[in-house]
Amino acid sequence: MYKLGSLIGALALAGATTIAIAGEWQALPDKAPEPADNPTTTEKVELGKILYHDPRLSSSGTVACASCHNVMAGGEDNRSGSVGVKAQVGGRSSPTVWNSAFNATQFWDGRAPSLEAQAKGPVTNPIEMGMKSWDDVVARLKLIPGYSGLFAKAFTGSDVVTADNAAKAIAAYERTLITPNSPYDKYAKGDLTALSEQQQRGLQTFSETGCASCHSGPGFNGSQNGQGVGDYIKFPGIENGALEAQYGFSKDLGRYEVTKNDADKHLFKVPTLRNIALTAPYFHNGKVKTLEDAVAIMAKTQLGKDLNPQQVGDIVAFLNGLTGEFPKQEMPRLPAYPGKTFDFE
Amino acid sequence: MYKLGSLIGALALAGATTIAIAGEWQALPDKAPEPADNPTTTEKVELGKILYHDPRLSSSGTVACASCHNVMAGGEDNRSGSVGVKAQVGGRSSPTVWNSAFNATQFWDGRAPSLEAQAKGPVTNPIEMGMKSWDDVVARLKLIPGYSGLFAKAFTGSDVVTADNAAKAIAAYERTLITPNSPYDKYAKGDLTALSEQQQRGLQTFSETGCASCHSGPGFNGSQNGQGVGDYIKFPGIENGALEAQYGFSKDLGRYEVTKNDADKHLFKVPTLRNIALTAPYFHNGKVKTLEDAVAIMAKTQLGKDLNPQQVGDIVAFLNGLTGEFPKQEMPRLPAYPGKTFDFE
């Protein structure tokens, strides 16, 4: 039994069933926080699920949110760069949509302060979904008869089919995309058999190596306090010529591209480790193909440590224990544009 | 009340609840025929649904069967030509997967004699899913741990992860993609209120104009007797310079491309009219954008008739009555390739 296991055991015996184990190890909440101006409702979630899966939100009619953030899989596309309209490949690897509701900011550079703001970005990005404007998107949605009723159910007002409401609905849907009850969560709640011995050893190594100093909190994604403190980290933190030559991590200036503040050069949002086994390849540029390599590189570039193969294997085993339970979802029906055709490019 | 309605009414009063109204108007069966060597089972359907939605069956990892045959919509992509890997656009418009189990042959040129044979085609087509070979697909599937168990549940034998079994599973899933209980079906079964007065008039016009001579049977897709008789039709049947100049229908030699028999030039499979309102644009090249135009062009090129706007409107109203009920489906979970990355192009 490892030290943390003992602490957890003690807390479990004392009847603690949720979060805040030893002040550090926390289970994933069952519900995501909701902004005051966009409470989650069944109607909004249903509309959002439809919009999220509707490729008509792209210029070609072929790219939906779900194309690069596949909820049937790990919430992204398992590619280094995502493929948008006209086979254009994005410069950063798609982050997972699963548990993104627990990120204080969105995108690798944190440029969106909310899921609502994030949802609007890719649709009009020329290399992602390629729509010229949200006005064009809304015009399309208004031509699809079924959408009027769906928006009217989800929102009040006289003009409900709007970009803001579409983004709110998509965000509301995304707040339901939570994967609780991973082996780690069960362990954190007191079931000491939920992680194997190797996984428990990996948790210990993860902690001792210092990984949790950034990958903290129930999402293993930083403080998420909304102040940005602890949510961004310089990557690579320690320059390494060989790794740079191999992976080109530093080509991307990260958060600097948003703020143009020199201090933000190469800062990236701390990504969640939830379901990390399902979201290869790794890092902002998706150049690292295996979780083993990702763990070893992180230790080297962020903590100046060389892990041995057993340590890497143990941490990877632990990270596999962060794969949660995916909620069952019914496939949405996309409302039709009966007998008519959009001018897809 | 129109003549056909009367006949149906008489039959309904006599207690007839299914098919064979006046020898011509038939409701869609609730079950699709199954080949002797591939009986439909729950396990096969579940595996097939997963494979059907798995973009890792494409060279880029971005194109699944569902990409061009979207079961959340009308079973295709509402484009004139589908977009495959590297943004390549196919030469023919994607046919709907819904009710494809009622087609005796598959593809516009009928080159696949079964759903099983069809399922194998697009995966290795260089402009569709772009895999170099099914051996490569199988090699990938074998690297995904979850697939072994899914194939083992669905099939017997020592080497179950095979191309044949993948195709069988996809076909078994597709046999569940049936949309019964359209307004027309309810009408055909005796509910004379299921079609509006205009739709009933449209049914009459559809019949009198001669549309049903090709679009016959419960699928409105020809005889489907497996002999090919009545399953193919020359299109355009009557040459029309103005329409040819506008739409270029004759650029495609149709079934001739399969048989190299001169008599098969410009022959195409009679496509189903089920859910036709959801599958714009129309015809093998998808050049006709509205159902109104499609109906008028068909009457002109196949039957030598000029329909007036009311006749067109009535037939379109009737065709809207062929939109069926789509079965609820749970989203599949795609098994992971944990912590590893495929070499997607």
Describe, in plain words, how this protein is organized in 3D.
The structure is a homodimer of 345-residue chains. Chain A is mostly helical. The first copy, chain A, folds into two domains: 3-30 and 180-320, Cytochrome Bc1 Complex, Chain D, domain 2 (Orthogonal Bundle); 42-174, Cytochrome c-like domain (Cytochrome Bc1 Complex, Chain D, domain 2, Orthogonal Bundle), CATH 1.10.760. The first copy, chain A, is built from 13 helices and two strands, in the order αααααααααβααβαα. The first copy, chain A, has a two-stranded antiparallel sheet. In chain A, helix 2 runs antiparallel to helix 6. The first copy, chain A, is globular, with a radius of gyration of 21 Å. The termini of chain A are far apart. Chains A, B: Heme c 1 binds at residues 65, 68-69. Chains A, B: Pathway: One-carbon metabolism; methylamine degradation. Chains A, B: One of its GO terms (cellular component) is periplasmic space. Chains A, B: This is Methylamine utilization protein MauG. Chains A, B: Pfam families: CCP_MauG, Cytochrom_C.
